[in-house]
Amino acid sequence: MPPHPTVAYQPPAAIGSPIDALDACLDRLQSRRSVRHFSTRDVPRKLIERIIQAAGTAPSGANKQPWRFVAVSDPQLKRQIREGAEAEERTFYDHRATADWLRDLEPLGTDADKPFLEEAPWLIVVFKLMEDDIQQNDSRRVYYVNESVGIATGMLLAAAAHAGLATLTHTPSPMAFLGDILSRPHYERPFLLIPVGWAADDCQVPDITRKSLDQIAAWQ
């Protein structure tokens, strides 16, 4: 069997010194917060295209790239998505969530009402592909789907933050209604719902802190 063709690796060049580039990146990401209050100011489609392209550069199992990013700006679809999400959220808050879970959510001020699903100019619905779009070697198998899509989603959030856009990772559960509303094929499974836009001028976010380096890293 002939070897797969290869190309020479071209490492990315840092802007300035590597540590300066990382400090600039860290400063940007440290300012990233989950936002629930969006401006209705327009976000050009080109920006959404670019952050999806950034997500698409993620590594994936066997390079199958098992993701689909459905960008929604149509007001009627956003209304349907909000109604579907709020129905699931009411069941969650009233019946599914444990007392501990509700106590942990209380500082964040969340409830079953999700107006941001209509206020944000865009909703990006992330789907994971349970089989490949293209049959290769008589197979449509995909590998490490959750890991691959999770990495791609993280890169999407980082790209949005780099552009100054606000995002929220929203996980109404179960999420099958998203596939129904958006008429996606059976092998695409909803993974995450991400409102994207500019933060509202009067936007407030919970006063939280993040774990320190010593708390999240171990050196051996």
Q: In which range does the helix fraction lie?
A: 25-40%
Shape: globular
How many helices? The count is 8
Classify the beta-strand content into a percent band: 5-15%
Low-confidence stretches: none
Outline of the structure:
With 220 residues, this protein is α+β, with helices and mostly antiparallel strands.
Keywords, separated by commas or semicolons:
8 helices, four-stranded antiparallel β-sheet, globular, alpha+beta, 220 residues
Describe the structure.
This protein has 220 residues and is an alpha+beta fold. Helices cover 39% and strands 12% of the residues. It is built from eight helices and four strands; from the N terminus they run ααβαααβαβαβα. It has helices spanning 18-30, 45-55, 75-96, 99-105, 116-119, 145-162, 176-181, 213-216, and strands spanning 67-72, 122-129, 166-167, 188-197. It has a four-stranded antiparallel sheet with strand order 1-2-4-3. Helix 2 (45-55) crosses helix 6 (145-162).
